[in-house]
Amino acid sequence: MWTLRVVLAGGRESGLEPVLRLGQLLAVRGAQRRQLATAERQRALGAVYTPPEIVDFMVRLAQPAGRKCRVLEPACAEAPFLSAFIQRYGNTHELVGVEIDPEPLHRARLHVAQATFVEADFLLWEPSIPFDIILGNPPYGIIGDESHYPIYLLKERKRLYRQRSRTWFGKFNIYGAFIERAVELLRPGGKLVFVVPASWLVLDDFQRLRSYLAQAGGLQVYYLGKVFPGRNVSAVVLVVEKGGRGLQLYDGVSTLRVVKREYSGEMIRFETEEWSQFEREGMPLGRLFHIRFAARSTEVRAHPAVSNKPQPGHVPVLTGRNLHAGWIDYETCYSQLWMLKSRASELRDFYGFPHLVVAHTKGTRVVCALDERCYPWREEFHLIPRVQGLDIVAILRHLNSEQVQRYVSELYRDFVPHLTASMLQRIPVIGDFSHVKQFDFTQPS
Question: Among 43-47, 138-142, 283-287, 432-436, which is the least confidently predicted range?
């Protein structure tokens, strides 16, 4: 069964401007909405399918502490979590589902008659009494314009969400706002059980959320991998016990890998003694290099020296497909863009001198090569030395080594589909750097 996760509010909230009910919005967009294929509609509304075995596992984690608890499923659609909760723990509890899409909400009322259902936007909803247990599968996706972002139906109210959120940063993903709001609605000692993408564990956009959760309670994180059919996203089950402390990270549903009695919001990784020792022995890459990002596609295309046909003096604009471990394919033009080599530094000054390039889009692995010809690039990471006297060839070999590949893959698994600057900054470089200690090692760029 597919469940639609929709966050479009009804009515007027205190201090907020009026917002449309989903039915009204769909009526306004009538013909356009009716033309959407089912899959496209689900994508536009943040639809996520929850496998039954995941629902059952989460319901077990949400075991109530008493005979009558207030239990909430946000963005409940047809209320699969409330239904499973009743089957396991009986109907003595006060069950509430919040959903804005009237169609699945109608089916939920038929299937789970014991529950109270509210047609509302969970992120703007204001219940009068907190909850003992909140569980479910919130919507996933970045809110924005239809041409770039999956949840474009919500772009009119993104400003309202940002105003209400204390953790919203960068592009953010709507599931992060759901986590924050759910924790707010828990009573002291209450429990949140959500299944969400693993990206919040490591991405900088979720730094505020991680810090907020660290202050709010004790965390249990169960890494599940890619469990959503048809979705190329790794998932975790997050349990927050409000008022608790520390962090526990599980590999799967039962293997405990990391325990921290104190947790302050840092990246969550599969840390081991081997990799902790590796980090203690080495110098973080970000203290030796500025880590810069190449020009974006739009910036490259807009430059007057760039052409979609090769001209005399032009060279290919390189991409990650040109980048291999230890070497660069300078001949193939995967970008279908060419540029005057003499003007490459107008895009980025570091295109004008040899430097190391590290792939951004080859998964959570490190692929590095030395650009000796100083070509223009579209995207990828570029390492610019902070200091003089570095052995660039030795560092190149180190970054492509099997040890570094194991380090990255074991710490970060497939939490995100690409290497991030924060991951890259932390890679230890082994060597004697006593001769560079006189330089100013500030925060990594």
Answer: 43-47
Q: Both 192 and 297 in a single domain? A: no
Domain with 392, as residue range(s), is: 280-436
Domain total of the chain: 2
Residues 129 and 163 in one domain: yes
Q: Does 293 score more than 70 pLDDT? A: yes
Tell me the pTM: 0.86
Query: For the range 250-257, what are the long-range contacts, defined as Cβ-Cβ under 8 Å and sequence gap of 24 or more?
Result: 250/220, 250/221, 250/222, 250/223, 251/223, 252/222, 252/223, 252/224, 253/57, 253/222, 253/224
* Residue-averaged pLDDT of the chain: 87
Among 229, 245, 268, the domain boundary falls at 268
Label the pairing between strands 116-119 and 131-136.
unpaired
Q: Are residues 285 and 233 in the same domain?
A: no
DSSP state of 252: T
CATH no. for residue 185? 3.40.50.150
Question: Whole-angstrom Cα distance, residue 219 to residue 34?
Answer: 42
Q: Mean per-residue pLDDT for 379-406?
A: 95
Instruction: Considering only residues 336 and 441, tell me which one the structure prediction assigns the higher pLDDT.
Output: 336
Q: Residue 398 class from Cβ within 10 Å (0-12 exposed, 13-18 middle, 19+ buried)?
A: buried
Which active-site residues does the annotation give?
A: 137-138, 140, 228
